[in-house]
Every structure is written in structure tokens, then in C-alpha cells.
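Worked example

This section walks through a single chain of length 274. The input is the sequence exactly as stored; nothing has been trimmed or padded.
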Amino acid sequence: MKASLLQMTSGIDPTANARTIADGVAKAAAEGSAMLFTPEMSGLLDGNRERARGHVVAEDQDLVLAATREAAAKHGIWVHLGSLALKGEGDKFLNRGFVIDGTGAIKASYDKLHLFDVDLATGESWRESNTYDRGERAILVDTPIGRLGLAICYDMRFPDLFRALSDAGATALSVPAAFTRPTGQAHWHVLLRARAIEAAAYLIATAQTGEHEDGRATYGHSLVIDPWGEVLLDMGEEAGLGSAEIDLARVEDVRSRVPVLRHRRPIPPVETFA
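Given that input, the structure is written out below as C-alpha cells.
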């Protein structure tokens, strides 16, 4: 079955971003895809937190979510809406992704567990925790492309999450992202291939790309990686639609050859010798 990825250059206008997603849903359905994946912050990418507050609303009021659900129902295709900035408790936002079925119903949602608080050698400094609340749940959902484990961007650096998802039955993993260029050039491919290999699962990582209205630049290179770690799709730096075939028999084949999931065991306490 086919999975499609919508690599985006999201901006500061949710209405324009919603149109891009709706167009992507229509094109993916026309190409026969079972499911479309979009990046982190599909609906709004704006580093100006005060300006962004004018567009960040509760889940039931978000126009991008509503437009995506309408498009999914119209075209009969599942969508993983990678994430949206939504109003949380108090002054904080939520970084929340959604899995939407072909009737437009929300089947699952996931709030990003690990928040991006880093200082890069380029001078870029990010403090996601100043604006966003972290999630508290790991999420697995049955979809047309298999049992899908959900993550968002910086989560990819924490293999325990992917171990928990694959232990719970994930055969595919989704990692929507808005990766910086310095970290993308250094770590994007190697980390995502490692997560796919460790879990012996498909990994679908849909990315933001290019120069954005808020002044940031993102890495692109949306990927589909198979359970053996082979890259089936690398979209480079251009925004647009890409696709790859997902073969669930491939998961069983890889897991039978190298049965890492069956070989996992609790790690004993570390002994330290001076």
C-alpha cells in the first residue's frame, strides 16, 4: 500500500497552510495513497510567540484541523496531521499531532513528549519549554499502513520511546518534524535509520523545508525508511508530495531474520568501578 508525505514550508497564516494541506490530501487520494503524512507545525510555524498567540486556539476551534478532517472525509483517505500548535493550560501551548481516518474522525492524538531546549554552535537558541507543555502519553493507533507509533521531531533522540512503541506492537513509526539545518545535516538520516533498524519497523518522517516567513530555515529531506534501514524515499529540499510503498510482510521478514524484539531484556543496574 502507498503512503504519501507532504513536505511543507509552513508560514504564519493558518488559512494558507490549511489550503496546502487540503490540496495535498486531494492529490494523495488521487494517486491511490492509503494515508497522507504532514510535518510538525503544519498549521502554523511562527517563532514570534506573541504574534502566534493570535492564531493559537483550542482544538475544537482550530481551522487547520477542521479543514484537514473535511478533506480526509471528502477524499476517503487517512491523514496523520503531524502536529499543530494548540492552546493548553494557562499560557502554554500544546504541540499535538492527530491521526484522522477516512471519515474525518480523529482516531488518536499525541502531545510531544520531549521538548527542544538547546543552544547550537551557529548561535541558534531554542527553548520550546518556555512556550509548550510536554506530553504525558505514548500513543499507538491502528491505521491502513499498520499499527502506527507516534512521535514528534526531538523525540527521535530518545530510543526508549521507540522501544516502548515497538514492544507494544508498532510496525510503523511516524516522526513529523521541523528540524533545523545544522542538526539536520548532522543527525537527521543517521538517527532515523537507527530508530527504524532498532524497532525493525517502517519509519515515516515528514519534514518542514526551506526558508519560512518567521525567518527560520528547516532541513527538509522527508524520509521513508524500511525495517532493514533502507531509505525508500528522500524528498530533498523541495516542498511537495512524495510517496513510497509500505509492505507489512517486510516487517515480518526482517523481524524473523534478526529477532531483536524477542531478544530484548531488562537491563540490570549499572555497576561502577573506580
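What to look for: Residues 181-199 form the longest helix (19 residues).
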